[in-house]
Design brief:
Number of helices: 7
Helix content: 25-40%
Radius of gyration: 18 Å
Number of domains: 2
Structural class: alpha/beta
Strand content: 25-35%
Low-confidence stretches: none
Number of strands: 10
CATH superfamily of the largest domain: P-loop containing nucleotide triphosphate hydrolases
Bound molecules: adenosine-5'-triphosphate, magnesium ion
């Protein structure tokens, strides 16, 4: 599996006036990569992710997955949104299995798979609870599991942990790495948090503003499990912070 972004441009206009422009993006993503899109607010991270998801049209250039142009959304690309996006009127199990293609697999099979995933993130006893009965971290886990049960090739995640406190954030980051290692998915993960990017990603795409663009792709070879207080970790974090500030 490869995703190739070539000479991509995207502009938003309001009353014929250009309000945002993403310029000349080139990026290659390979199977099982963990990629972070990192940059300040408004640098176009969500826009780039939505373009890869096929939720937004490109102006020029192309996004090619396995030799084919991405022209719209697909189940092979699962999206986890910036805000919690569970259905409040459905319980956890129904949220997770909502919209699964019942044509291909039996309902029992989908439920069985959903339960295995829920258990893997410690949510086995929450199946009958509703979103308002869960903490933010639990809701976000359910949202991640919901995208995983569809068995996408690529997980597109838009700042899924940004609303959490630091402890929960760290816990879910570790869980995310476990899930990624076990399922061997390709992950494209948006964040504005340098620490999060260094902890999670193999490839950190550093983005800048005015116009929005890719500054550099930093290949993060830090061995796993990663220790946030190690000298190497802190060095990489400093280096990336400097590049972003320039
Ligand atoms: N549909 C749209 N129409 C007009 N402008 C838009 C649209 N979508 C996004 N924008 C603008 O594009 C810019 C980039 O937005 P985007 O959401 O991609 O940034 P971001 O890097 O994800 O920021 P944040 O970290 O705050 O989520 C913003 O200035 C935003 O107002
Ligand atoms: Mg965003």
């Amino acid at each position: 599996m490869t995703v190739e972004i070539k000479n991509l441009n995207k502009t938003f206009k309001t009353n014929e006036k250009e309000v945002f422009s993403l310029r000349n993006v080139n990026l290659k993503i390979e199977s099982k990569d963990f990629v972070c899109l990192l940059g300040p607010s408004g640098c176009g991270k969500t826009t780039l992710l939505r373009l890869i998801a096929g939720l937004e049209k490109i102006d020029s250039g192309e996004i090619i997955k396995d030799g084919e142009l991405i022209i719209g959304p697909s189940k092979e690309r699962g999206f986890v949104f910036q805000q919690y996006s569970l259905f409040p009127w459905l319980n956890v199990l129904d949220n997770v299995t909502f919209g699964l293609d019942i044509g291909k697999e039996s309902k029992e099979e989908n439920i069985r798979r959903a339960k295995i995933y829920l258990k893997s993130v410690g949510l086995e006893n929450t199946e009958n609870l509703y979103p308002h009965e869960l903490s933010g971290g639990m809701q976000q886990r359910v949202a991640i599991i919901r995208s995983l049960v569809n068995n996408p090739e690529i997980l597109l995640m838009d700042e899924p942990f940004s609303a959490l406190d630091m402890q929960n954030k760290h816990k879910l980051q570790e869980e995310m790495i476990r899930i990624w290692q076990k399922t061997e998915k390709t992950v494209i993960f948006v964040t504005h948090d340098v620490n999060e990017a260094v902890f999670l990603a193999d490839h950190i795409v550093l983005m800048g503003k005015n116009p929005a663009h890719i500054k550099e792709v930093y290949n993060n070879n830090l061995s796993r499990p990663r220790k946030r207080n190690s000298e190497e970790f802190i060095n990489i974090q400093d280096k990336i912070t400097k590049i972003l500030e320039n």
